[in-house]
Amino acid sequence: LLSSLCLSHAVQVSAVEVITPEELFVENGTDAKLPCTFTSLEVISSAASVSWSFQPEGAATRISFFYYSNGKSYPGKDIPFKDRVTWSGDLNKKDASITISNMQFRDNGTYICDVKNPPDIVVKPGEIRVRVVEK
């Protein structure tokens, strides 16, 4: 007679809550600060990180274009945001915002802000629908 032994243990997982505006209107050719703040029950650790991705209007896939960790920003080297993204946040103040300079009509789409603060893990990243409009 074989008996199976099941071991289970509950893992306490807390979540980071990411807060972004639902929609943001930006004038063509201007700089846009994409606001992203978060709440976390854990102390902000050196392992905390932020990643931003972009889903163009009508596209099915997302492009990762910015990463921030350990006090350093790692902007993507490829189009569409090459040399246009700067870190505007402060993780100690629970701010993960970025600024994109010289916004263009091709920048229309959804921007996704994903914050990790181990052991906190994100349940739902923040999403901002950006609309670039004529001046």
TrEMBL record:
InterPro entries: Ig-like_dom, Ig-like_dom_sf, Ig-like_fold, Ig_sub, Ig_V-set, Myelin_P0-rel. It is a single-pass type I membrane protein. Residues 14-129 form the Ig-like domain. Transmembrane segments: none annotated. Gene3D superfamilies: Immunoglobulins. One of its GO terms (cellular component) is cell surface. Keywords: Disulfide bond, Glycoprotein, Immunoglobulin domain, Membrane, Signal, Transmembrane, Transmembrane helix. It comes from the Eukaryota. It is found in: Membrane. Its main location: membrane. Residues 1-15 form the signal peptide. Pfam families: V-set. Belongs to the myelin P0 protein family. PANTHER family: MYELIN P0 RELATED, MYELIN PROTEIN ZERO-LIKE PROTEIN 1. This is MPZL1 protein. It comes from Hippolais icterina (icterine warbler).
